[in-house]
Each structure stands twice: as structure tokens, then as C-alpha cells.
Hints:
Blueprint: E1 5-10, H1 19-32, E2 37-42, H2 54-71, E3 79-82, H3 88-97, H4 102-106, H5 109-118, H6 125-139, E4 145-148, H7 153-169, E5 178-181, H8 215-223, H9 241-254, H10 258-264, H11 270-297, H12 299-328
Parallel strand pairs: 1-2, 2-3, 4-5
Helix pairs in contact: 2-11, 3-6, 3-12, 6-7, 8-11, 9-11
Amino acid sequence: xxxxxxxxxxxxxxxxxxxxNYLGALKQWxxxxxxxxxxxxxxxxxxxxxxxxxxxxxxxxxxSAAQLIAIGVDPSKCTLFIQSHVPAHNQLAxxxxxxxxxxxxxxxxxxxxxxxxxxxxxxxVGLFTYPILQAADILLYQADFVPVxxxxxxxxELTRDLGxxxxxxxxxxxxxxxxxxxxxxAKINDLQDPTAKMSKSASSMxxxxxLLDSPEVTLKKFxxxxxxxxxxxxxxxxxxxxxSNLLTIHSxxxxxxxxxxxxxxxxxxxxxxxxxxxxxxxxxxxxxxxRTKELMDDQGELIRILNKGAARANEVATATLKAVxxxxxxx
Length: 331
């Protein structure tokens, strides 16, 4: 039986992914590549909706790809590529835009939220059509399912609607993908505000553990992490959110159950516990940082790997686009 095909992408909007990205989605990317036909994409065109210095964007695109390889995404087991290396993404997006209603695109929650925050005059058209380009990303590869977070569910529903609309109006070209809502391996919160999800949009990076942080910086962030009253290392999200978050992080990376960790640190102080969590995190992240640096030091090899992925992606995407163009009557 042929393997089911999955497609997933990540934006290169920061220098480093963080621990929440890793445990929330990227670790699953690594697992999925073993028994699926996996296509993983650095979605650099999507990143253009945010104003970025060209040199910074170029560096971040390569850093994102390097980190994916460093965490275990294996280009010999999956297709790893950069979105802009496959022109069919933009070409199919235009076709899909022409069968998408204005109101339909305007109802997308993320667009509504961001345009309300920034004001309509300052919101670019790319942000409005973003979900349609995302639909093209997915439909081009005839994906069976798309592993995404809950916040992307609406975009996958739009993708399914557009694929079905095209199929019924023109020809059965697209495989209609199923959303696979990723159940995060662990809900990772900010070390300075343990009631809030770890995020790069936090007002301070002091509570965000980046994959490329040095061991010294990681240790410092854990030592200054917010804890709670009392001295007991016990999981209780309501009354002890700080300690509960640290227990979750340790458990997710060490594989030890929270119950076992509560026993292990019974009678020990918060200082000892914080240091132990930092040690587990550093032992996991240090090799990722080293491997990322190696890849960034040999960018020629990194680009060669990405070009190889783009060649495979282009093969699949071009075949889909050709069928689409034929179905809609383009010569």
C-alpha cells in the first residue's frame, strides 16, 4: 500500500524556533516522515506579509531549513524545500483566488484579527489572500492530510471548500485533504508568565526558550523563571502554574512521567528543580544548535539539499498545475 502524503509548512519569521514550536509540531514532523510521504516547506512567500529586511529574511529562510534538519527532519526520508523555489504555488493561488468569494476570504478569523489590530489601511492584500496561497500549497501536492494546530482549522476548511468547488465546476483534479489537528505533545507556557502560551510575540524574550539559545542563556532563563508560593514540586495548573509548566517541559523532553518527577524532587527546593529542568533542556537543544551552526557554515551544501527537495516538489506541483490549467481551458 502506498504511503499517505502529508504536507506542512513553517514561516521563517524569526532567527530561531522555540521550545513550544518544537514540542507543539516539529517533533511530530520528524515522526511522520518515517511512515508517510512527507512534504515539508519553509513558507517564505507567506513571510512577505510582514515587513522584513531582505538580508534578515534570507538569513532566516536558511536558518529555518537548517534547524529543521538539525531537529531530525531527514531530506533522504522526506521532501524538504523552500516555497518560492516552486513557482506553481503562486500560479495555482491565482486560479483559486478567482473562484474564492470576497466575503469568504474576509471571514477568515486570522485576517479579521490582524486587520482590526493594524487598521484596514495598513493591512496588505497579501494578508487577505494568505489563506488562498495556503490552500494552493496544500492542493498542489495532493496531500491526504495536513498536520496543523487548532488555529489553522478554518484555513484547512477553506482549502477543502476550494478543492471541492474546483472539482465540481471543472474536473476532479484535487485530492481533498483531511485536517489532522496536532495534539501538542505538551502545552508549553512562557517562563515569565506561566499562564500564557510560549510565543515569539511575547513582550519579553526572557520567558521564551529558543532552540538556538546558548546553554548559558537557557540556564539563566530557567533560574529566573517565575515559580509559586510554597516549596513543593507538585503539578497543579491552577495554584502552581510556574512549577506545573516546568514539570511539563521536563516530562516532555526526559520521557519521565510527571508523577515520577514529583517523587524525584520531593523535599528538594525550587532552585534544584529549576537547575534540573534546565539541564534536561540544554542536553536536548545543544546538539540542535551545533548541527544548525554546521549547516549554516556550509550554506552551499544546505542550498544543494534544498534544491534537491525543490526538484521533487516541482515535479509533483507542475503535474497538478498542468492538469488545472487544462481543466480551466488555458492553452
